Amino acid sequence: MMSMTRLLIAVLALAMPFAASAQDTLDELLQQVQQAAQEEQRVDQQRLQRFINERNNQRQLLEEARAELRAEEQRSDRLQNQFDENELQLVELETTLDERMGNLGELFGVVRQVAGDLRGNLAESMVSAQYPGRSEFFANLAEARELPTVGELRQMWYEMVREITESGKVVEFQSDLINADGVREENREVVRVGVFNVVSNGKFLQWDGDQGLLVELPRQPAGRFQNMAENLQQASGDEVVDMAIDGTRGAILAQVVRAPTIQERIRQGAEVGYVIIALGIFGVLFALWRGIVLTIKGNAIKRQLKREEADEGNALGRVLKVYQDNPDQDVETLELKLDEAILRETAPLESGLPLIKVLYVVAPLIGLLGTVVGMIQTFQQITLFGTGDPRMMAGGISMALITTVLGLTVAIPLTILHSLLQSRSRSLIQILEEQAAGIIARLAERRHGSAS
To answer: What residues in the chain have per-residue pLDDT under 50?
Structure first.
């Protein structure tokens, strides 16, 4: 700023020769220069004072920062000393803990192992339907990182004893369950037979540990077992009733209800099985009808044996009618006529038997056809998917076996029925032949007596 003022004065001095005539203007210029110099000095003084003040403030801040640094260093020293003391104390405490634990470390491992086993057993136990939430305690105990307390050990022992005690009880209580339609029902009366079975309204239930609920089996066992379950639920406190027990805690019951029904087995036989069943039904009905016909004819022949007069309403009567219509015929001619009459009656008595024979021969052959078709399907599955999954081959093998079983099932009763009907037919024909032989014998005896 001072250099600019000097420059301004020099300029003015150079200009003075050109303004010698204006003395007043120079005085004013001098006065302005003096005022400018004073103003410049005042500004410089203010700036200097502000710099001094700021320097003093920075010195004070520096002293404060140094004091705070010294305080933090002292605090760090104290914390380091405390940390070192804690480290020494921790080592001493760990040594004391190891000395005092002794055999308790082995006990801790055993408790965790037992708690883990009990957690799984109780989660799958049917007793949990009556006392839910037991497995959570054992889950926490199995995952604990500290030694179990005396109270926890007592609780574990209590749950073990309660499980043993409840396994020998038959108890009725209220519980939620999921029925066969998948709908949840609340507060159903159920009866628990130890840890083996749970029933409700004559239906067997199964405990689902994942859902924590009883589930009604979608397929129930045989009717007699359901009757046992219903009688058990309706029995009084002192009444003794029969009840089926699943000693495997539901494993056998699950396998029983998974066994295919007759309808499912028939469906496994597919079209070949349906054909065999149709032939079997037709053959049995036809055999029964032929049996009824032979029974009626046999009764009529038996009634004819008790009468002297020939009745043309039965086979024997028609044979005897031939003799009564030809009393004067010679023995040879009458014998031929009687043989002809017996032949006429033999065909109706043996009618239908060849058809039954054809059916019991064809049925196992059709079953064999189903076996071949099933094996072809099995080999096709093996070709497409390999032998890694046996379930892929189950359909063809089931068809092969079921059709064989159906063929034999149809053939065996039809064979028996054919044998019975044939035996009955032959016995009736034998009666006709015996009566005809008796007539010939009596006629020949009379003729021989007359000739002598």
So the answer is: 1-2, 11, 14-16, 18-21
CA end-to-end span of the chain, whole Å? 195
What pLDDT is attached to residue 229? 80
Overall pTM surpassing 0.85 (yes/no): no
